[in-house]
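Hello, quick one for you while I still have it in my head. A protein chain has come my way and I'm curious about its shape. Can you walk me through what the tokens say about the fold? No rush at all, and the record is pasted right below.
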Amino acid sequence: MVRIRTIFGLQEKNESTLDGYNTDRWKNVRCWMDDEGNLYGATCLKGHDKSDTTSVYNNDGSITVSRVNRDYTDVKGRIEQLTGKKVRPVDVSGLFPYLNVKGHGMWHGDSDERVIAKLGKNHWYRDAVLRGLGERYSFSVCPLVIPKKYANKMEVKEMNIGMMEETVKAELREWSVI
């Protein structure tokens, strides 16, 4: 059985697909890039927001939207640990290769200690960082290194870390009531 490397360890390829990956179109998924232009995924595709957004409705009818972009420093650290390279955060859109990762299957009433005791010594659930990212039964994750045949077709944008703010003015329009 051929396996693919992720930050969650080696995962089985999907044998019902041509190259072992499931694929879907996603917009602005947090990824990381090294100085050589290699693209690293290694992120959960669902469930983890990259930003905190606040909307303020002003008296003049405008809306001020502020957003604080976050980088997953723990995921970034894991990628740097596994690859030995420094990486920077980027937002990527396109057709993503991903794998399904089996969760830890914790049942109601189980404690983390009981679940960990049942797992093998190399299971991802033993790691606090990965346990914080993973989900109970299964989830989707990008491979650690996104293959070039996908990466070359993706749109990569530099990510602004920190606060961004934009004010949108409402357009006045005539309304008719029927």
